[in-house]
Structure formats: C-alpha cells, structure tokens
Amino acid sequence: MSSILYRLGRFAFTHRWIVIGAWALILAVVVAVLVAVPPKVTSEFRIDGTPSQDVLDTLSENFPAAAGSQAFIVFAVGDGDHVDDPANASAIVEVVKEIGDNEYVAQRELEGMDALAQLPPEQAVAIVSEQLGGLTPLVADGTILPNVLVSDNREVALFTFQLTEQVDSVPTAALEAIRQSSETAANASGATLRVYPSSTLVPLIPNLAGPAELVGLLVAALVLALTLGSLLAAGLPLVTALIGVGVGVGGAFTLSSVISLSAVTPVLALMVGLAVGIDYSLFIVNRQRRLILDSKLSAGDAAARATGTAGSAVFFAGLTVLIALCGLSVVGIQLLTTMALVAAATVAVAIAIALTLVPALLGLVGERIVSARARLKSSGAADENHPVAHRFVSAVVRFRLPAVLIVVAVLGALAIPATSLTLGLPSSATANTGTAERESYDLTAAGFGEGFSGQLVLAATSEEGTKIDDQTLADLSDELRALSNVDLVLPGGLNDDRTTAILSVVPTSGPASEATGDLVHEIRGLADEFSDRYGLTVGVTGQTAITLDISSAMAAALPLYLTVIVVLSLIIMLLVFRSLLIPIQATAGFLFSVLATLGVLTLVFQEGWFSNVLGFDTPGPIVSFLPILVTGILYGLAMDYQVFLVSSMRESHVHGHRGHEAIERGFEHASKVVVAAAIIMVAVFAGFAFNEDIMVKQIGVALSVGILLDAFLIRMTLTPALLALFGERSWWIPRWLDRLLPNLDIEGDKLNKELALRRNSSL
C-alpha cells in the first residue's frame, strides 16, 4: 500500500496542475448543478415499518386530507381582556377565513353544523361543546367556530387546523401566507390579541454554519499554525478541508431532488468532513515537513514519501470511518442510512483530497513549505525527544497500573448517568423560553392542559368497507374516554365514503411523559378488541406516537450496531497492527469512551448542566438517532488516533526497539500531531455545539466530548499504559495467523527498503 501511495504522491506533486484542475472541475460541476437545481431538505423524521408511519401511509390512501400535519395557532390576551370580546373574536374569525382559503389547509367541520344554525345560540353552543368533550368553541357574530377553542378563563384561544401535506411538503410561500394571516389578528382594529403560531408551522431547518462554527475554524487555524510553525503550511489543511466539504456536502445537495435528505444530514456531513479533512491533511503536511527537516529530503521526495507513509495511515484510518458509517445501513433504518452514507461520502472525498490534492498543492508551494529559518533551527535529529511528550509518556509507563485504574474510574463515573438516558425528538416543550414556539406551548398547556400539545391521532378504518355510523364512533369515543390517562376524545372527521374516521385523543399528561407513552401502547393493545367489537382497525399516529416509535426503533437497533462495530474493530485492528491484544484494547477503550459520552450528554441535556453556556434553558430528551449515530462516528474517529499513535509505536518496535522503549519513542514521534489533530477536531465540533438547533447542538457536544475523552484518556493515556503493562506480549500474534494476514505496511517499512535499494543501485 505504501508503495502505491508513494507513486500517487509523486505523480500529484509532479503533475500538480492536472490534479488541481481536476478537483477544480469537480467543484465547478457541483456548484453548477446546485445553481440549476436548488437543494431541498426535509425536517421530517420517517421510519418505514413503524406503527405510526403505517397509519399515516394508510391515511394517505384512504383519507388524504387527514394525512398531513396538524397545525395550531394560539391567541392570547393580557389581564382584563378576553379572547371572545367582540373585537378580538371578529379578528380571529378573519384569520380563520383567510387560512381556510389556503389550498394547503383541509376543511373539516363537525357533523350537523348546518342544522345547529337553526337552533337558539345558547342551545347550539351547548351541543357543540358536548361534542368537543366540554370545551367551549368560539362564537363570533352569531357564528360558532368549533375549530377555535376558548380556555375557561377566556384568556387563550386555540385554532386547530389540518394541512393537506406534511409541513415539509408544503411550499414555503404557503406556510408564510398562513403565518402572515395569523398576524393580521394582532393588528386588527380594536383587537388586543397576541398571536403565536406553533412549531408545526415552522420546518426545523438548521443553519449550516454561524459565528460559533467560524470560531471553531479559527481555533483550528491557530493550532495548525502552532503545530506546523508556518502560516503557509497551516493554510493548506484548511483550504483542502473546505474544498472537500464543498464537494462532499455540495454533492449531497445535488442529490436532494432524488433522495429524501434530512435537514440535519448536510450539517453532520459538514462537521465530520471539516474535522477529518483538516486532520488528514495535517498528518501528511506535518510528515513532509519532518522529512525535509530531519532527513534533509527535497520537497518532492518528502511529499511522495509522506503520502506513502502518513498517507497509508490516513487511508486505513479513513477506511475505519467509512466502514463504521456504512455499517449503519445494517440496522435497516433509511433515515440513518442516508445520514451515514452522506457523511461517509464526505469522508471519502476528504481521503481522496488528502492523497491527491494535498501533494499537488505541496508541489505548488515547493521548498517554501519549510522556511529558511526553520531549516537553520532544525538539528536534523529525527529521534530528538519532545520534552513534554517524553515526560508524560514516561510517567504513564512508569505508573501504568494507577494510570489504567484512574482512566477506567473516571470514564466509569461519567458513564453512570447514561443509565437514565431518555430518547425523543425536539418539540415546542423544549424550545427556549421566549420563543414563539415555547410561548405557544406554554399558553396551550395553561389554557387546556399539557396533553393538548401531545394529542394522539387515531385512525379508525372499517374492515368490511362499510360506512362507519355515528353510534359506532360514539361508542368507540366513550371507551377511549374511559381510559385512565385520557382527558378528552375529540372528533376529527370522516372521509367522503365514511370508511375512515379520525379521532383526537388528548392525554392528561404531556407529550414527553412516560404516562403518555404508556397510553399509546395501551390503545394499540386494545386493537383486537376494537376489531371484534366495532369491526374497525384502529391505529395510533400523531407527532407524539411518531416520536415514541422512532425512539423505540433506534434503541432496538443500537445493540445490533454495537455488535457490528465490535466485530469490525477487532478485525480491522488485527489487520493493521498484527497483534491480538491491541485490537481488544482499542475496542474496549472505544466502548468506555462512548458510554462516558452518553453519560455526559445525559447530564448536559436532560439534567441541564452547563445549559447557560450552551444557550438552552429547557432540559429535554436526547435526540433519538444520536446514540447510534455518535457510536458510528466516534468509532471511526477514535480508530484514527489509534492508527496514528500505535502505528508509530509499532514502527519503533519493527525497527528493533523493545519493551517500554518502543512505546515511548513511538509516542514521542506521533503525540504532537495527534494532540493537534484532536484539539482541531474538538474545536470544530464544539463550534456546532452553539448552533441554535438543538439537534445540531447535541451532535456537536457529543462529538466534541467523545473525541476529548477518547483521544486524551483512551489513546494518549490508557493505550500506552496497557501496552507497558503487557510488555512484549502486546505485539504477539500466533505465527500461523501472522502468515495468513496480508502485510498492509502502514509503517512504510517495505517502502523504505525499496527506496534504499533504488539509491544503492543508482550509486
């Protein structure tokens, strides 16, 4: 492998303009496609095969108008005013009419409204109120609005309506028209209303980057400059990483019209692409500079050899990331598969750029990659100890058993909170205080109860294709209303042939409550009884049920994926290091760091630790897909540092150093660049921890904490301590297995011998 990459690096350095032109052309094509076909992303979380999604799919066929998102607009007044005062009521009526005219709003009314118009107003209101489970409808100018409910204190009104599509499929212009229509109530003459559209009218599309992310890049630039000792050299990893994410993320956007691209997917690809892109380029540039300074090679020879040696480590380290991400497809969840494959594609681009564009740009820079001053200061001693690294690794090796015990104790303590980890999806309930989404949720909860924001949507379909009569619906509603955690059962309408009916079940508990989840399971458990008694197939959906099903699917998939990761880790590390102990150590250390990371996530986002620093004020559940996604990404990135650090130790061992000397020398040679790479990765991920979107925030915290723990506690401390504890046995492998395994030559030993033979033959 090292010989092939050596020739590739030599070609790229020599034919630099061909390589640079090829990457420029690729980037130009991506940009041109994006201009011609604007990207489209969705904030919908869909997992086919879950009970709630099956119900939605059935509704799409039988009752399309009921298969869209449910939307809410809250109207509120201050002390002394009432939402049903004439001016306020008239303003709300105008909003209802305007929104009702929107082509993406489904029109459904209670049965028998025309007949009610003939009755005295008080009697008509009483009948509608009874149909609404005792809630009070808004009455304005003699007209009853059953889809606008008034709270008991008359200070809050809730307008509920149905979109004909999921909110992500509704054109932006239509959603903006709905929001503008709602705001007219606040400006109506004589009205004293405050208007709060719910989060269901705002697709959750996170920003790709902001000020915090730019600060992360600036920190990365500073670390690069300090590590490489040159602004020119420091600029190369940044430039190539940005080109890589431009091609990778841009390429993903070009496919958004063909595949469903979750809104968080490009952000994830940007995070990972930036981090690995900078790190991989750093490893090669740093190795080239060391070869120039220590071995007195020319820039061209050093670039080719750096691509052959450090490039081999980059290739196999990147391969572990790709395998870990692509391995997510085995769990069979399309949402995760798309996220993982897009991130994997971006990593693949970063690897290709590191092995081709980096040596090409080094060819463009030439000998200027190392300044004359740096050449004069260099002693040319490749084995010169780095004082800080030397003292640190010497202490770890000397006190190896205490070091192992301390690391295990720290990570074990951090992992304990993960036992209470709760999965879910962001909602208005966890939005920051003061936002329109949170105000809408709080006012709804205060006026109508917490369960009103977590309504369960029940779809009842006739099994024989016969019409559903009113008495059957009434009996079903009464039975549901008798369940212990049900506050109200509200009618939602029937399709044109009366074969499918919709009911809204309002729990007494909030949407994120365990009791609400129990209610979903209880209703589903009664499906056979409903079928026998009423001839109806009853299914539960709605945002609360969807969130519950997604969380259950993700939790069920995690053990399978962990098993896949453990097996892959053992195989890959066996191939790379030709040792039995090191794969076990690498895998066990990774599991420790992942569990500790999940524990920290629980403390931060469920318990609210450091919430003020991170910019959120309401603790909530961990995003459902986060544990399994972070497991895959952290595995790949952790193995990066394992490969770079331990391959350096193995190189020392292969070159004749034994015992503790091989560990210490290898550590000293690799630690500086590994520490720099880890700090860069933590800085990049930490920048995303300050993103306004809670999903991006959680991913940023998880990856930055995970890399921090794994790089500095596992790879830099636990690994040398364990290798020192086991001594020469760390490198042992049965001879028969050694003969079977291919020699990947990551350390470049075969390449060095080949180059030495060439030099000798030319003399």
Q: Can you lay out the helices and strands and say which pair or pack?
A:
Elements: H1 2-14, H2 16-36, H3 51-62, E1 70-76, H4 86-100, E2 105-106, H5 113-116, H6 121-131, E3 136-140, E4 143-150, E5 156-163, H7 172-183, E6 194-197, H8 211-228, H9 231-254, H10 264-295, H11 299-326, H12 334-365, H13 372-377, H14 387-398, H15 400-415, E7 423-424, H16 436-448, E8 456-462, H17 470-481, E9 486-494, E10 500-507, H18 514-525, H19 527-534, E11 536-541, H20 543-577, H21 581-606, H22 611-614, E12 622-623, H23 626-654, H24 659-688, H25 694-726, H26 735-740, H27 749-762
Parallel strand pairs: 7-12
Antiparallel strand pairs: 1-5, 1-6, 2-5, 3-4, 4-5, 8-10, 8-11, 9-10
Helix pairs in contact: 1-2, 1-11, 1-12, 2-9, 2-12, 4-7, 8-9, 8-10, 8-24, 9-10, 9-12, 10-11, 10-12, 10-24, 10-25, 11-12, 11-20, 11-23, 14-24, 14-25, 15-21, 15-25, 20-21, 20-23, 21-23, 21-25, 23-24, 23-25, 24-25
